Amino acid sequence: MWSYRKRIDRDLVRWREAGWITPEGEAAIRTDVEKGIRTLGLANALAILSAVLIGFAVMSFVASNWQEMPRILRLGLLLASLWASYALAGVFARRGMDGFAHAAVLLGVGIFGGSIMLISQMYHMDGNPADAILLWAAGALVAGVGLRSNPALAFAMILVTYWGISEALRFNTVFWPFLLPWAIVSAAFYWQRWRPGLHLSGIALTGFIVSLGYRLNDGDAHGLVTAAGLGVMAAAIAGERLKPELPALWSGTFNYGLVITLAGLWALQFFKSPELDVFTLLAVLAMALLIASIFWGLQSGNRGALWLGYIGFSVEILAIYVKTIGTLLNTSLFFLVAGLIVSALAALAYRIHSRAEPQLQGGAS
Amino acid sequence: MIKLQPASWVAIAIVAAIQTAALAWMVYGRVSLLRDGREIVAEVIPVDPRDLFRGDYVVLGYSFGRGEVPVPVSTVQGDTVYVTLKPTGPGQWEPVSAEGSYPSLTGGPDNVVLKGIVSYVSQATPAELPKASVRFGIESYFVPEGTGLALEQMVRDKKISAVLAVGGSGDVAIKALAVDGKRIHEEPLL
Fold first, then answer.
1. Do B34 and A123 touch (CB under 8 A)?
2. Whether the predicted pLDDT of A363 surpasses 50
3. Given a cut of 70, is residue A364 above it in pLDDT?
4. Cβ of B18 and A89 within 8 Å?
5. B92-99 vs B80-89, strand pairing mode
6. Where are the domains of chain A?
7. Which residues of B touch A (CB under 8 A)?
8. Which of B4, B15, B190 faces A72 most closely, judged by CB atoms?
9. Is B93 helix (H, G, I), strand (E, B) or coil?
10. What is the pLDDT of residues B69-79, one digit of tens each?
11. For all residues of chain A together, what is the average pLDDT?
12. Percentage of chain B modeled with pLDDT above 90
């Protein structure tokens, strides 16, 4: 919502200056946008929060194992509330109150999870909690696809990720089956054309790829992770050239690739205690990569890459400092050299930035 | 977005029905296991005597699951195994073998096969099979909130055993707890 307002602010100025809309039109649009954000945004956010709260109430109700009511009646109560939630979603949808409808769908998904918990408890099932989570995720996916509900799909992705993590911990190895439900929920996000959902997919997959570095090859596959990250970045750059009509997809992919590459490089530099010459080579590589990312971010208008580059560079420098602390003389020498390098880089970055900033402004507005 | 069409009621009914069916399937599986499964009694060893009734569920340990199950050489943590148990006395069971699939020969009519998940494998020696700890999904027993302590008082210094129902595919469920052979907390099917 906020980013939408920022964008429409910029666009309105441009449209007015181009003579496409009158000042009155602009004022009317602004009032309308404000109204939408104030009332609907807050109401919808509160509705989703209330669904989460009531969902927690259901979980606590189950956890208390309340004996005043026979178990079969408790299950019946939960089933009735499940149907009531979805019916409520239908009523809201018919009145055009989409935000409330999604909150009701999310509540229904929460009650479905609570019912799974209740049945597990009724029969003292202690097999594999991850199976219950996967069943819950499947229910959330059915609701998300069947009722076109993005919050339910987002919840399905969260559950699938939780399932993947707990299975990976249980097996203490790479849990490849994670990729199947991940792909299904991601496809649902794509089918819905829902960008925040695709970001969730990106975060989950990034975590999975980074975890490979600690799982494969006896926990020492960070080189592979680095290569995978570089591959993703290269694919994003190639994609941007080949299909420039999907800029958001490519810039997002580039940024996740950068995160993967950095995770691999940092693990190689700081967790693996390499020889000094290897370490230096890796550090130089990492810094070059970060500067290139900043440059790429400026050139392609990818603010995410810009910020990742700045933050990553600071972390890299700090980590090198911590790592190379040795004698006072060495530390002092490191300070001097690093200071000189960074100031030179700052000067360079300033030049690049000041040259590219008008471009970025021109490209973004 | 939910489509503002009459069809959306159909979509809603389908989603709710699928979820209800999934829950009903869970209940049905358990009810039929408890009703039709073979009933065995297994002695329970407290996992931690001081902390037996931890909050609102009891942690149950079984002598046949703790680190003594001989498993095939390639078994790793997280694998599903079918453990064949041999009765050695009232409430006493001893693991004789474990396989990756349901065994075709159980070695005797009294023997019983339980499906479980390997939680830990000890280092194998060349001479014998590696030994594993196995969880069968019958290690927790939920009690009503606030009644755990009273139950603990009742069963202190007494022998607790679990009445289990074992299905044809190795699935197992807790039917009841018994103290000195007397059933407490017997659960209705529903």
1. yes
2. no
3. no
4. no
5. antiparallel
6. 216-365
7. 1-4, 8-9, 11-12, 14-16, 18-20, 22-23, 26-27, 30, 34, 56, 76-78, 117, 135-145, 173-174, 187-188, 190
8. B190
9. strand
10. 888 888 888 88
11. 82
12. 6
Decide if pLDDT at A299 tops 50: yes
Are A143 and B137 in contact (CB < 8 Å)?
no
A29 near A12, Cβ under 8 Å? yes
Distance (Å, whole) CA B92 – CA B85? 10
- Whether residue A180 has pLDDT greater than 90: yes
Percent of chain A exceeding pLDDT 90 equals: 22
Q: Which of A93, A128, A146 is nearest residue B15 as measured by Cβ atoms?
A: A146
Q: Which residues of A touch B61 (CB under 8 A)?
A: none
Q: Where are the domains of chain B?
A: 37-184
In DSSP notation, A266-289 reads HIIIIIS---HHHHHHHHHHHHHH
Residue of higher predicted confidence among A123 and A136: A136
Residue of B nearest to A81 (CA): B16
Q: Which residue, among B20, B23, B62, would best test binding to A if mutated, counting the most A CBs under 10 Å from its CB?
A: B23
Question: What are the strands of the beta sheet with B131-135, ordered from one edge?
Answer: B69-70, B131-135, B112-121, B80-89, B92-99
Q: Measure B21 CA to nearest chain A CA, in Å.
A: 11
pLDDT at B1: 46
C-alpha span between A100 and A106 (Å, rounded): 10
Helix residue ranges, H only, chain A? 2-17, 23-35, 42-63, 71-94, 98-122, 129-146, 150-171, 179-192, 195-215, 222-242, 247-266, 276-300, 303-324, 328-364
pLDDT winner (highest mean) among A108-112, A302-306, B144-148: A108-112
**When comparing pLDDT for A6 and B131, which is higher?**
B131
* Global ipTM: 0.81
| Residue type at A316 in one-letter notation | E
Average pLDDT for A295-303: 81
Rounded Cα distance, A75 and A84, in Å = 14
The answer to whether the Cβ–Cβ distance between A125 and B11 falls below 8 Å is no
Q: State the nearest Cα–Cα gap between B18 and chain A, in angstroms.
A: 8
Q: Do B173 and A124 touch (CB under 8 A)?
A: yes
